[in-house]
Amino acid sequence: MSDIPESSKKLLHYIRDHINVISNPKEVESIAYMIIHHLFQIDQTDVIMDRSLKMNSESRKKILSYLERINVHEPIQYILGEADFYGRKFIVNQNVLIPRGETEELVELILDDFKGKRFRLFDIGTGSGCIPVTIAKERKEAKCFAMDIDPRTIKVARQNAERHGVNVEFVLMDILKEPIPVDQLDVVVSNPPYIPENEKNFMSENVLTYEPSKALFVPDDDPTLFYSIIAEKAIPALRSTGRIYFEIHEEQGENVQKILLNAGFRDVEIFNDLHGKPRLARGIR
CA 257 to CA 281: how far, in whole Å? Predict the structure, then answer.
């Protein structure tokens, strides 16, 4: 333990050198910066300037523990207990998915559509609560509701609403069996499970081992299960000209478009993400 350096730049190199399960050097460096920021509250510039650290036995133990957990593929966000989303820190644990960039783009699409407007939003399968909490934070005039099926998940989402000082009403329910319990909505949004079971062989071990499978996977024979049911249940809950938004599998854009049109939505659009993949959908009631 005594060989852990107190120089921030040397600590960056130390952490990088002791991560042996990730081949992407940029990802390894990003993880090293995250650990240093989490433990010592200094940013990348401080590390580049080689700011000295107040290292003690507790921080040394944590570094060794973090490295051990990283090297059995545990995601750094679960290790640190938080993830970045839309410029904020969200509490995460193994009961919720780690928020990702595509979901930030989904939030951005909604915010752009409702600039300067009061609106009511219902998020289906809220996970960490990152969608409604971010929208409530960005738009004080928005009234946000959200649901999930697992009380442990709802607990994390509530903690995030409290952390960021916003009022989101959370509902424990099963969207496959129950109707949306709020009406006169302007927005129904969901990032539902959409990865077919047969894609597990192509996924990284950290996702398969640690992230909640119920939030990721759908049966191979019904990959658009959630889109069909949510679209059907959104119609009576939405106001006239209310909108539905989905995060989607890149291979399901055409199918989701058909589902929304058949359910009664118009002007259905599929949007590419920043990587040029069709990952977002929107329809108007």
Answer: 7
Q: Which residue ranges make up each domain of the chain?
A: 8-72, 85-284
Look up residue 198 and give its two tokens. 């047969």
Amino acid identity of 136?
A
Which pair of tokens denotes residue 100?
Answer: 């990702």
Asked whether 74 and 32 are in contact (CB, 8 A), the reply is no
**pTM value?**
0.92
Q: At the fourth CATH level, which superfamily is domain 85-284? A: Vaccinia Virus protein VP39 (3.40.50.150)
Average pLDDT by stretches of 10, the chain with 285 residues: 83 95 93 95 91 90 96 96 96 96 96 95 98 97 97 98 98 96 97 88 84 83 92 97 96 95 97 94 97
- In whole angstroms, what is the distance from residue 254 CA to residue 261 CA? 11
Q: Can you spell out the DSSP letters for 18-83?
A: T--S---HHHHHHHHHHHHHHHH---HHHHHTT-B----HHHHHHHHHHHHHHTTT--HHHHHTEE
